From TrEMBL:
UniProt entry tagged with the keyword Ubl conjugation: no
Record-given protein name: Long-chain fatty acid--CoA ligase
Coiled coil: none
Keywords: ATP-binding, Ligase, Nucleotide-binding
UniProt xrefs under SUPFAM superfamilies: Acetyl-CoA synthetase-like (SSF56801)
TM region(s), chain numbering: none
One GO MF term: ATP binding
Residue intervals of the AMP-dependent synthetase/ligase domain: 9-442
Organism encoding this protein: Alistipes putredinis
One annotated Gene Ontology cellular component of this protein: membrane
């Protein structure tokens, strides 16, 4: 049966034509666009592309902030039979953009006025790029077409060729390519993940086996729309269910756009939100800052309410079981007095988050569950379009620390290093098979053959399946620490815990490549360190004292410390390379999904890693650590 993205959208337009699909803030309020109106505009965009010479299977990129125009442009690309190449607006380096635009052989590009300067700088180096369509009002240069003009061209084209044009979208097959999505990998150079129309519609069907979306639901997409996760859960699932999608009001700068999010949430009143760990942590930080601002009594009451809810909820799956049912009235009272007010800051209608991305700390899940906005963590990757498993609001499956249960229909196995299937509870590589598995990597047959074998996608992630069918993802195999005796350990959980529990450490990468001991590259929290030194009235030797504070943070996980036993002692860092330059997107050490790019950090600080494994470098108060800390605290 034919099930393309166009088929999915046309079916929903037929069922929900007069219902609101898109919400965008214009003239101080969110304005609705119905499913039928969206189709009309998408046809105009697609026909406009056809009038400019874009043919089926041509590649058309989108480099823009989330908006109606973004979503309508991609639908228009599909109506024209072309392939969408979504690009991250966080790509700052010209080389990163050039690589993707050249590698994908992009013939046309939708670009926002905010991103246009990046393209103008490299335009001369892109002879294959024939058309630049600009979203937003800005003076245009030669070779650029306004988005409104494209739609006018489309209207003119449809006036004489509508039936002929509609046949293009109708002719798309399930296995035709829909998108080339470039991974912003944390361990290697980007690859173009080729996803078919059926990959997307299959993953929509699979995801709906675990999550119910009534047609009355609204979401506000906070994540960048080039995310595969945002594609499927953010708007294709919403299309399938006839629900509504809002986008964040675009500011003049990325920071201004970020500042619009809290206000937009209150205005849209979403029923659920997509989240990734970095965003979830920011939400929690803002909540706690707001509570502290209300005074010491409120802060203590909130902390007591949280602890009580934690006891009542347990691991989420066993909420209120046994004697804990006696706490229900107390938890209910705290919800009425405290937690409901927190939820009002999210619009008052928010029922849950759907979480993706990196490992999500269990403590973060406990926090959001306690305040009445559970974060249903899932697992996926672009090569799987992307969702593989999730904790389920539909069935109330929620186990903190897990990535939920496998979607249906989907096959999953855990394999050892020899490729043998392992029983439940044993750790190995996660491999999956289903209609959501990618077609391959664009122009990279070797990588495709290594990743997809006999229909099974080898994820490169370590994990296990528990006796009660929950998937636990432990980290990337390529991120593993390898001791000198060959033993391996995944560091991501330890890194997350150290950053979450230490006010003095902003970022950390733990390192061991068959080394005599485990080391770590540490980026301190400048403000917290300075405040602590001031509180201790340390005026002289501040750098040395700061080094001791950071070392003590790691010691909290050793025998006798408050977190002793949380991680094996042999894998705790025995030496620290303290650096004064944070990992950022600008220096290439964080990717567009806010994940640290481990191999690039190791390359960037190679001299510090090498120094760490010298007798002097292993000392906490070594010259290089003190030099970095002087820049931070003196």
């Amino acid at each position: 049966m034919k099930k393309t993205i166009i088929d999915l959208f046309e079916s929903s337009v037929e069922k929900y034509g007069k219902k609101t699909f898109l919400l965008e803030k214009r003239h101080h309020a969110f304005q609705p666009t119905t499913y039928a109106e969206t189709r009309e505009q998408a046809l105009e965009v697609g026909a406009g592309l056809a009038s400019l010479g874009i043919r089926p299977k041509d590649k058309v990129a989108i480099l823009a902030e989330g908006s109606n125009g973004w979503i309508i442009s991609e639908l228009g690309i599909f109506y024209a039979g072309a392939i969408s190449v979504p690009l991250s607006v966080k790509l700052e380096e010209s080389n990163d953009l050039l690589f993707r635009l050249r590698h994908a052989e992009v013939k046309a590009l939708f670009v926002s006025k905010q991103q246009l300067p990046k393209i103008r700088r490299i335009r001369a180096e892109l002879p294959e790029l024939e058309q630049i369509i600009v979203l937003g009002h800005i003076p245009l240069e030669s070779g650029e077409t306004a988005y409104g003009m494209l739609k006018r061209l489309g209207r003119d084209y449809l006036a004489g060729h509508k039936e002929e044009f509609l046949k293009i979208g109708q002719a798309i097959r399930n296995d035709d390519y829909a998108t080339i999505t470039y991974t912003s990998g944390t361990t290697a150079d980007p690859k173009g993940v080729v996803l078919t129309h059926r990959n997307y519609t299959a993953n929509v069907e699979q995801s709906l086996s675990r999550i119910d979306i009534p047609s009355s639901y609204r979401t506000l997409i906070i994540l960048p729309l080039d995310h595969c996760f945002a594609h499927v859960v953010g708007f294709y699932i919403m299309i399938a269910c006839g629900a509504s999608v809002a986008t964040v009001q675009i500011g003049a700068t990325p920071m201004e756009t970020l500042k619009n999010i809290p206000q937009n949430i209150r205005e849209v009143k979403p029923n659920f939100l997509l989240s990734v760990p970095a965003l979830a942590k920011n939400f929690r930080k803002n909540i706690e800052t707001s509570i502290r601002a209300k005074g010491r009594f409120t802060e203590r009451l909130f902390d007591f309410a949280l602890r009580t809810a934690y006891i009542y909820n347990q691991d989420g799956y066993h909420k209120g079981k046994g004697w804990r049912i006696l706490l229900a009235p107390v938890v209910g009272l705290f919800d009425l007095v405290l937690f409901r007010k927190v939820r009002e800051a999210f619009g008052g209608s928010l029922e849950f988050f759907v979480g993706g991305g990196a490992l999500l700390d269990s403590e973060l899940q406990r926090f959001f569950y306690a305040i009445g906005i559970p974060m249903f963590q899932g697992y996926g990757l672009s090569e799987a379009t992307p969702v593989i498993s999730t904790n389920s609001p539909k069935y109330h499956w929620h186990k903190f620390g897990s990535s939920g249960k496998i979607l249906e229909p989907l096959d999953l196995k855990i394999l050892d290093e020899e490729g043998r299937e392992l029983p439940r509870g044993q750790k190995g590589e996660i491999v999956i098979r289903g209609e959501n598995v990618m077609a391959g990597y664009w122009k990279n047959p070797d990588a495709t053959a290594a990743t997809v074998r006999n229909g099974w996608l080898h994820t490169g992630d370590m994990g296990y399946v528990s006796e009660d069918d929950f998937l636990y993802v432990l980290g990337r195999f390529k991120s593993l620490l390898i001791a000198s005796d060959g033993e391996k350990y995944s560091p991501e959980g330890m890194e997350e815990a150290i950053v979450d529990k230490s006010p003095f450490i902003d970022q950390i990468i733990i390192y061991n490549n068959q080394s005599p001991f485990t080391g770590a590259i540490v980026v301190p929290n400048r403000d917290a360190l300075r405040r602590e030194l001031d509180a201790r009235d340390i005026r002289e030797g501040r750098a040395a004292a700061a080094a001791d504070i950071l070392g003590a943070e790691i010691d909290r996980y050793r025998a006798g410390g408050p977190y002793a036993g949380e991680f094996p002692e042999r894998w705790l860092p025995a030496g620290l390379a303290i650096v004064d330059e944070p990992f950022t997107e600008q220096n290439g050490l964080i990717n567009s999904t806010m994940k640290i790019v481990r191999n690039k950090v190791e390359e960037y600080f190679r001299d510090r890693i090498d120094y760490l494994y010298t007798p002097e470098g292993r000392e906490l108060r070594n010259d290089k650590n003190l030099a970095s800390l002087r820049k931070i605290v003196e």
